[in-house]
């Protein structure tokens, strides 16, 4: 498996989800993040004034479908808040995860407001150095949600300021809470020193710096993809299953780092794909499918995509100086001339124990009905196929392939 690098530009985010459930509404005055559902609405001073919320049970994106929970609220015409634990130490017999910069990039581009939170209570798993049923400091979460309700700038501005001002305090609160849990519950967690060594990687003169957090966690993310650096790779040699890292820019400024699990070349077209599989049944869970759809929202809104390979121009000292000046004046124009744009498509691949294939969007109801009948789908599964077809139809860059395993 290879990690391949791409650059792209997003002008606007336009997306309509169709797999949206009914949402429970909570009153802000008695809202408790621990007893609330994992997503819903928070009513402020009236029924028409509310905030959408979701919560993560781990800072790691691959655990418990946090993107599916945000997807469930993404159709609302309100601010969207997601509560993320800054770290989660499950004990020496469990996992130890921390938030990273790629998560921040996803939320910034999708205009989702982050509330960094910490766990302060937990129960011990019998006969193990492991804790479970961890609970947030709910007062802190409620306070930040109220601040966001009165905030008049974008999620990018909130998230940047929130990380710069609050990251270190929230991190230290988490460390202190875990130290107290270890003592009072007589369970072995990671040491305070180990956690603080990580925090030091984000600091300069004992002060948190967002760029140091970015550099450290991006390197860790790349190592998790089995490469310490981006590998130069010929596009024509891409295969199903290669990983991609994308450096995305937009009008708000800055570079946002995203990852895609699968990129490959098909008939000279680059395919950015998320795959969801059920090896023991007909279709993956709805949350699994929503997770894949949410990850593709940003990619389906790409205006252009290019590789890091210079093309078209004869290079000498004069042209290099000219194009360097042009890039400084207008980066987008420089991109247009210095990079070869890629033709690409976005795809969600759904596999299971199925007969035949179904490509969406598809306007032929007979094709949809035949596929559902051949696979003996229930009414719920038929409805899911209909909604997926609506989602692919009304989000024009999205393609969905439903096919058998293997």
How does this model look, in words?
With 406 residues, the protein is of the alpha/beta class. α8 packs across α9. The chain folds into 2 domains: 192 residues, no CATH class; 156 residues, no CATH class. It contains 11 helices and 20 strands. The strands form 5 sheets. The chain has a 9-stranded mixed β-sheet. A 5-stranded mixed β-sheet has the order 2-3-4-5-8, with helices on both faces.
Number of strands: 20
In which range does the helix fraction lie? 25-40%
- In whole angstroms, the N-to-C terminal distance is 18 Å
Please tell me how large the radius of gyration is: 23 Å
Q: Are there runs of 5+ residues with pLDDT below 50, and where?
A: 226-239, 310-328
Query: Looking at the structure, what is the overall shape?
Result: globular
Q: Strand portion, in percent? A: 25-35%
Whole-number average pLDDT? 87
Q: How many structural domains can be distinguished in the coordinates?
A: 2
Largest sheet: 9 strands, mixed
The DSSP helix count reads 11
Category by helix and strand content: alpha/beta
Give me the side-by-side strand order of the main sheet. Answer: 17-16-1-13-14-15-18-20-19
Which key features would you list for this structure?
406 residues; alpha/beta; 2 domains; nine-stranded mixed β-sheet; five-stranded mixed β-sheet; 20 strands
